[in-house]
Amino acid sequence: xxxxxxxxxxxxxxxxxxxxxxxxxxxxxxxxxxxxxxxxxxxxxxxxxxxxxxxxxxxxxxxxxxxxxxxxxxxxxxxxxxxxxxxxxxxxxxxxxxxxxxxxxxxxxxxxxxxxxxxxxxxxxxxxxxxxxxxxxxxxxxxxxxxxxxxxxxxxxxxxxxxxxxxxxxxxxxxxxxxxxxxxxxxxxxxxxxxxxxxxxxxxxxxxxxxxxxxxxxxxxxxxxxxxxxxxxxxxxxxxxxxxxxxxxxxxxxxxxxxxxx
Length: 262
Known about the structure:
- There is one protein chain.
- The protein is of the alpha+beta class.
- It has ten helices and six strands, in the order βαββαβββαααααααα.
- The chain has helices at about 10-15, 45-50, 120-130, 140-150, 155-165, 170-185, 190-200, 205-215, 220-235, 240-260, and strands at about 1-5, 20-25, 30-40, 65-80, 95-110, 115.
- It has a six-stranded mixed sheet with strand order 2-5-4-3-1-6.
- Helix 8 packs antiparallel against helix 9.
- The longest helix has 24 residues, at about 240-260.
- The two termini are about 35 Å apart.
């Protein structure tokens, strides 16, 4: 049986039908039944429960390292304006889920990235329980906890901008960056991404205007130098392009080094 591994608490929100979209960096050809596995890492769960302080939600609700339910994967689509109406949709690829059911007894299993194959014994255990798996409504305590953990509107917009950037959807990048800048007019990130959007549309002067602003606001924003360098290349300013691309490369190397030290 095929499965996906998701970090808690989002595993539980999927199997009780609250979370109807799983966001992935890649699509899959698989459609149909999927076992839903809860990963062992608890950092996201810990942050969720800390932010939910005061809600009557029991930590034992969130099994770690187990297959906890099954769901139907009915479609995989790129993030789009219609899907933005769903608060769970961030993309870049939205896996559309339906028919969630909770297993009576969680089954211990080791998770993997992407869609993976359960072992023969794990698959047998899941198959034996499917007929008894139940549809369970999300408890009020979970809904209250989700509300407490609701992302800032700025964050939601930014996550979606990043997805549209990966998909190279220029108009959607620009549209959402305009929304983000209406909330945070001095955001280097939104100016930088909007500059990327204009670059994709081959509006290089508009791109330079936004990328200059992004760099003024945050001189360490490597991607802004990168796309400004590309824009300079397209406009024939080779020396400026070379200088910016060297800065972008240096900042990327420093960022990689900092992550390695962490």
